[in-house]
Every structure is written in C-alpha cells, then in structure tokens.
Amino acid sequence: MLNFVLLHGKGGLKKDGWFTEVKRFAMSKNIPVLSYSFPVVGNISYLDWKKMFELKILPYLSKDTIMIGHSLGCGFWQKYMTENNIHTPIREALFISPAVKSRGIPLIEDFFKTPFIYENITKSANKFTIIAGKKDQYIDSSLFEFLAKKIGAKLFLYEDMDHMSQGKYSNHPELISYLKKNY
Question: pLDDT at position 116, please?
Fold first, then answer.
C-alpha cells in the first residue's frame, strides 16, 4: 500500500507549512503518513537520529514508500543509505532542498563527516526527485545539480524559491502539485 514517510530538517516538524500540506493531501487520498520528530535541540547527533529511524521508521519502509525529506532529513537519508542496505528499494526518494554537506554549520557536521557513497544511495529507491530553489540561503544550487547527477534524480530547480521552509514557499505549492500529479 502506498505510504509517505516524512524526514524533517534541522528545524524539526512544524505544525504548519509543508508537513501539514503533505498530510492534508495524503488524507484526501487515504495515503498513510509516517513522521517522527528527530532530536533538533542542542548537539544534533546522527546516531540519535539513526536510533530513532531504525526503531520508528525503518520497519515500515516498503516498495510502496515515498520518502519526502527536507534539508538535513535528506542528508540523514544519504548518510544512512551510505552505511546500510535496506534490501528492498522504496518507490521514490523525494528530496526537498537537500543538504549535501555541512556547509560549515557545526550543529550538523556529524551527518557529513564521511563522504557519501552514491552507488549505495541509488540502491535505496527506484526513483529520485529533487525540488529546490536557486535562492536557497543555505545550499548553493550547484550542490542540487551535483546531487541530481550523482543519484540520477529528476531536478526541479525554481528561480525564485528559497530553502522552502520560509516565506511564500513554506507551504510548498510545487511539492503539493508534484504529489497531485504523481500520486
């Protein structure tokens, strides 16, 4: 059965914005949504995220899963899939403004200490899509292009969009449009 898994970024799960919009869309289509709040206060630890992921999310991944990750959630997915084989690829990994490296932000360096193995990452999903903006204040758009090439992702790069967590794009109209078109 088709299901969505949401992996948030450093800002956590917000009660408004795109998480709410995705959940609303999923409810209208009777698509189950799985999301948990990873630790985002103090020293953000990859190992803490990994423990929670393996306990709360990993058992529910299937060939029918659409993983929708934002920012650090995508960085987590890349690191986890570099280190682990999930055996059955999910249907799609949908990266929203994906973090590709720490960019000098000490709070998230733990997720990017070792290089990603893109061959392993590509085995985690049957399809990869990246939705991002050229006006992202945290991640240079060239990194979205780099990642798209490395994992064979379809890249939707919008001219006037920022990190997709603030301002007029906080509800992700492009993401919701993509989901409506594809699911």
Answer: 96
Q: What angle do CA 88, 44, 3 make, to 5 degrees?
A: 30
Cα distance between residue 130 and residue 113, in whole Å:
23
How far is the C-alpha of 126 from the C-alpha of 92, rounded, in Å? Answer: 6
**25 in Cβ contact with 173 (< 8 Å):** no
Confidence of residue 106 (pLDDT cuts 50, 70, 90): confident
Q: Which residue has the higher pLDDT, 79 or 165?
A: 79
End-to-end Cα separation, the chain, in angstroms: 12
Query: Rounded CA gap, 51 and 32, in Å?
Result: 22
The alpha helices in the chain, defined as continuous H runs, are: 18-28, 46-52, 72-83, 118-122, 141-151, 173-182
According to CATH, the topology of domain 3-182 is Rossmann fold (3.40.50)
Residue 84 has what DSSP assignment?
-
